[in-house]
Amino acid sequence: MQQNSPEDDRWSPHHYAFAHRALLDVSVHFMSEIFSFFTEGPKAVLNSRLEALLEATDMLIEDGSVRHYTPSDFKITRHSFANLPCLVVEMPPPHEATEAYFVAIVSKIEEEDLMTWGEPNPENPGPGRQKEWTLNYYTLERYSGYVKGRKSLFCEWDSNGRHLNHGGGPEPTLEAFLPFLEDFIAKKSAGEGRPNSE
What we know:
alpha+beta; single chain; disordered N terminus; 5 helices; about 30% helix
């Protein structure tokens, strides 16, 4: 059985499993609809959706650990960078390396096309465009390595199931992460690579 982190006796593997498995899986399932799934509707409905996802996370854990957070411990906000919808999920504080401070789900489809993207493509009948990989999934993760001054790691899960490490990230605050993410998206769209970080 996994042992609790020495930093916090309330540690459990649910934190990692939520950001790197459960939320990723539901994002891939809903694709472009994920942006409205967590932001449109009464607060009670949105909380029930998040609670259902947390319960799905519980089912992934097999060591008997107990989850110590609820939907009220998360903050989900919607943004737009380069006219691309973006959801930012602020996680409960991480305690172990690779656990996430934030998850950012960024659409590859511009705002004005998002509502109709799931409709069947007349030039490609069958499952329709909704089955295409229409998002980027980023994580800002806790870093506990040996690079002096490094505050976080900025990573990505790609469509091939690979966990990509983009290097050092910003201070793990929403105020620092949002401009960092906006800069990254703008440079990626322009083919200029990643922004500078410590």
